């Protein structure tokens, strides 16, 4: 299993951790590879997984590559050019998650409707299977010990490292409703595994896999981010929210004001969310579907023709995109600052001229008094 990074427990990393546990339960051996290790790599090693960070150390006797992210898959292809590859796409907006025909994937996996449509339109998937699976989450019989959410919401938490603006609005809406609010991912508020903090809250504000993990914990989940608002996850809304990856991008019409939305809280939302996670997202079923797909591509050796340095070009493109966007924002901030300084300079210049005129009038008046006195 490959990933761009194994540093923090983010979306694709938590997905691999979840699936690997179920593959192991089915008797399969999993090896992880990433050139950007960190806390997540350490976490996997603590679970007795084999984690490699140098491509020369990747074993050559693996049966299938479960590939995520172009740069890492491209690097593995220099070591395993003929091994069957299944390419998995989580996002439609990250360039590293778009496939390349040169990597020779035997099949593809889409984890929401948006990525399925993108993969189906991609030239790299021509003549290849595109399997649509739902995002998986850990489901255990022992989860019956979980604490249900309260009949009245008392505690809420927003979980995201990318939120910037909506936490303030969430905090205000919660305060007005008498709900204690916290934000994991904000300044000084990190967590190695946010599920620990979510267990003690009635409401979880999140998107993506975080929202799904909160569902599995039986929390009342409200899909919201800086750029979207999908609302409460329940039986009536699940299909639409799952289709866009629990982002809220597919929501129709203007979003409901947060204060009004919170009044719809009901303890039943927690049980509904849990039931939906069990019915549609159990990692056991996801892993079984993956194994069946691995077997379907096992007898079709890859026809990979990756150009030398492909993995480096993919990584550099990804980093260049990020640098370009950051530079654009910095330039906009500097332009705004220059405009503010120019406005301030104009104000100060106007004030200086006023003071000069006052000074000149005062001097003329003083000179007039002196002449009168001299006379």
Question: What this model shows, in words?
Answer:
This protein is of the alpha/beta class. It folds into 2 domains: 11-136 and 282-323, Glycogen Phosphorylase B (Rossmann fold, 3-Layer(aba) Sandwich), CATH 3.40.50; 141-280, 3-Layer(aba) Sandwich (Rossmann fold). The protein has 12 helices and 11 strands. Helix 3 links the parallel strand 3 and strand 4 (85-89). It is globular and about 115 Å long. The mean pLDDT is 88.
Shape category = globular
The ordered string of helix (H) and strand (E) elements is: HEHEEHEEHEEHEHEHEEHHHHH
Overall domain count? 2
Uncertain regions spanning at least 5 consecutive residues = none
Tell me about the largest β-sheet: 5 strands, mixed
Q: Which radius of gyration do the C-alpha atoms yield?
A: 28 Å
CATH superfamily of the largest domain: Glycogen Phosphorylase B
Helix percentage:
40-55%
Task: Tell me the span between the first and last alpha carbons.
Answer: 102 Å
Any idea of the CATH class of the largest domain? Alpha Beta
CATH topology of the largest domain: Rossmann fold
**Annotation, overall tally of beta strands:** 11
Strand content: 5-15%
Oligomer: single chain
What structural class is derived from the secondary structure elements? Answer: alpha/beta
Widest sheet: strand ordering: 8-7-9-10-11
Judging by the overall fold, what is the CATH architecture of the largest domain? 3-Layer(aba) Sandwich
The pLDDT mean sits at: 88
